[in-house]
Amino acid sequence: MRLTTAALLGAALAGFAISPALADGYKDCTKLDKAQWKPAAEAEAKAKALGYEVRRSKIEGSCYEVYGVKEGKLYELFYSPEDLSLKHTVAK
């Protein structure tokens, strides 16, 4: 019983310590309902227009997160799905 409790506690604490590291950070881009969001492909097109080679994109919180490479460096670009404005950029 003691070993099981210690193992569960250790796993819980390890998961807690790892969780914040996995978060990308910027997640609040709009309060608009998802049904009214513009297509993610349009956020990718905006990144391409800025000179990024788009690798992939996903929804992160209420943002479109676009991964792109520019001048050999990886970036994360966060777009508002409401108006496709660029809200935040992170160099990796």
Q: What do you see in this structure?
A:
- The chain has 92 residues and is α+β, with helices and mostly antiparallel strands.
- It has helices at 2-22, 40-49, and strands at residues 53-60, 63-70, 73-79, 86-91.
- A four-stranded antiparallel sheet has the order 1-2-3-4, covered by helices on one side.
- Residues 3-23 have low confidence and may be disordered.
- Residues 1-23 form the signal peptide.
- This is PepSY domain-containing protein.
- It holds the Pfam family PepSY_2.
- Residues 8-85 form the PepSY domain.
The biggest beta sheet is recorded as:
4 strands, antiparallel
Q: Over the alpha carbons, how many angstroms does the gyration radius reach?
A: 18 Å
- Secondary-structure element order, N to C: HHEEEE
Helix content: 25-40%
**Average pLDDT, to the nearest integer?**
82
Number of helices: 2
Describe the strand arrangement of the main beta sheet, using strand numbers: 1-2-3-4
How would you describe the shape? globular
Number of strands: 4
Strand fraction band? 25-35%
Distance between the termini: 44 Å
Q: Class by helix and strand content?
A: alpha+beta
* Uncertain ranges: 3-23
Keywords:
alpha+beta, disordered N terminus, 4 strands, 34% helix, single chain
Write the layout of secondary structure elements.
Blueprint: H1 2-22, H2 40-49, E1 53-60, E2 63-70, E3 73-79, E4 86-91
Antiparallel strand pairs: 1-2, 2-3, 3-4
Summarize the structure.
With 92 residues, the protein is of the alpha+beta class. Helices cover 34% and strands 32% of the residues.
